[in-house]
Amino acid sequence: GNSRAPPAIALEEQIGKSADTIVAFVEAAPDKLGTDPARALLFGFSQGATVGWTIAVMQWPRPNLLCGMALLSGRAMPELLQPSTPLGARLVSRGELGKRARVFAAHGEEDATTPVT
């Protein structure tokens, strides 16, 4: 394709800011929009799914921020989620992950933009 990936540090910053913005929106939605916090779902496609994977594994302001996630055609970015990286420093423990919202993930085998590896 004709796309060019930004440098890793810029990408990590962009993903971190996007994740923080989404978490803040979901956290504020019950008071500002009257939504039911027990029914908050997150859907992400492509880059939105990549941000969604980051949200799935990062610390949340409250334990049940989301009740479910659907992440399509995106990927977790393990290179940005190492303990030595800013995003990696925000990860929850494996034990905590098992208590979180369920995640439905799907990805096309012939996706040329974000290939399955």
UniProtKB/TrEMBL annotation:
InterPro entries, per the entry: AB_hydrolase_fold, PLipase/COase/thioEstase
Single GO molecular function: hydrolase activity
A family per Pfam: Abhydrolase_2
Domain Phospholipase/carboxylesterase/thioesterase: from-to ranges: 12-116
Protein name: Phospholipase/carboxylesterase/thioesterase domain-containing protein
